[in-house]
Amino acid sequence: QKEVEQNSGPLSVPEGAIASLNCTYSDRGSQSFFWYRQYSGKSPELIMSIYSNGDKEDGRFTAQLNKASQYVSLLIRDSQPSDSATYLCAVNNGNNRLAFGKGNQVVVIP
Amino acid sequence: DVKVTQSSRYLVKRTGEKVFLECVQDMDHENMFWYRQDPGLGLRLIYFSYDVKMKEKGDIPEGYSVSREKKERFSLILESASTNQTSMYLCASSNRPAGTEAFFGQGTRLTVV
Asked: What DSSP assignment string belongs to A56-98?
């Protein structure tokens, strides 16, 4: 099993809808979880970090963490065309390194 | 704001050349990383360093080496460039303790011909 898995294919959502992205991880000792956004041809930029079980909200973004089930999700409310990008899940298991999922492409349709 | 700067945005090198990719960060971060990103494969860790002169292999270190002589600078070296090393290379840095977020440079698109 890969360390971090993002299995969904490209996600198309209409403008104003909710986009939902999921990520699972294999190491139960993982402590820190991150969502990065990457526009085409650009480098990843951090949009959310979450460290404890539950929800964390920041503007239109909500990260959800469930350590017992080993998944972390990202919700984008009121999706905008500017949200069209690839979203990368990253997990740190405490050894100073980050493992990334392959990413999910989101396309917001006006 | 954290700034991570990579020396080149685009680079074209010939097979067999020795290639140096430089990365500098200005936030006194202890940890620095080199990743490569390829379509369908995501971000893969090549090497990382948690202190000056310290380095650890990542998931795909073969064909690469690194150097960290100063805290702010982390260099990736392709000893003898090959066409399968054509890729986007991304440098990142983060602070201790482990688990803090990483910040990325703008990336270097390397083409080996």
From this structure: EEETTEEEEEETTTTEEEEEESS--GGG-EEEEEEEE-SSS-E
State pLDDT tens for residues A43-102.
Answer: 999 999 999 999 999 999 999 999 999 999 999 999 999 999 999 999 987 677 788 999
Q: Which residues of A touch B (CB under 8 A)?
A: 31-32, 34, 42-46, 49, 51, 88, 90, 92, 94-103
Type of residue numbered A15: E
For residue B96, name the pLDDT band (cuts at 50, 70, 90).
low
User: Could you tell me whether strands A11-14 and A104-109 are parallel, antiparallel, or unpaired per DSSP bridges?
Assistant: parallel
Tokens 């460290």 label which residue? Answer: A51
Alpha-carbon distance B81 to nearest alpha carbon in chain A (angstroms) = 23
